[in-house]
Amino acid sequence: MEKKKIVVASSNAHKIAEIGDIMKGYEFISMKDAGFDGEIEENGSSFKENALIKAKTVAEALGVTALADDSGLCVDTLGGAPGIYSSRFSGEGDEGNRKLLLKQLEGFEDRRAHFECAVCLYSPGGKTLFATGRTYGHILEEERGNGGFGYDCLFFSDDLKKSFGEATEEEKNCVSHRFRALEELRKLL
Ligand code: IMP
């Protein structure tokens, strides 16, 4: 039987492959391959809103079902920052973001944090499914490991008892916020 095709509102091939590994039984294609090359303004005020904006924009433009995710790092002591601003925290890319985070946490004992991911599946006509996932840990005093991306080498995972930067991709994918959100979505489908 032919697999149902779902367009992912992303051009990140790595992310699309990861989604396909978790949600077996569907074929995922990038929005670009599906014919969407417009800009999407992520101006929501939560992960969920941003995921909806991305999925809805692509679904309505192409007339197909679209899946989008939005994620980031939330640090308790910083009131949940950088949160939805995780990728633009310092305005200077991943390395600048990590430096700024360490600077803002200087002198703080409570370094608890979690990654959060919201996923949204939007079908033309407005049928919408949401799911969220979290993974907990704390922010290290210095970088550990050099795997992954973003804040991985500063995030010590409660589940893995090591930083995401020290973990293999398989290890991280078993406990990640994105994995948990997609698992939740899979159950809803
Ligand atoms: P996106 O919504 O998945 O593109 O993620 C937005 C930003 O959140 C990224 O640019 C990273 O700074 C941060 N982030 C999200 N997920 C992760 C992760 O698994 N590891 C490290 N950083 C992440």
Give a structural overview.
With 189 residues, the chain is α/β, with parallel strands linked by helices. The chain has a single domain (4-188), classed as Maf protein. The chain is built from five helices and seven strands; from the N terminus they run βαβαβαββββαα. It has helices at 13-22, 47-62, 93-104, 169-175, 177-188, and strands spanning 4-8, 26-30, 66-75, 112-123, 127-139, 155-157, 162-163. The chain has a seven-stranded mixed beta sheet with strand order 2-1-3-4-5-6-7. The longest helix is centred in the N-terminal third of the chain and has 16 residues, at 47-62. The chain is globular and about 55 Å long. The two termini are 18 Å apart. The model has no long low-confidence stretch (mean pLDDT 94). The structure holds inosinic acid (IMP). Residues 70-73, 86-87, 97, 115, 148-152, 164, 176 line the site of inosinic acid.
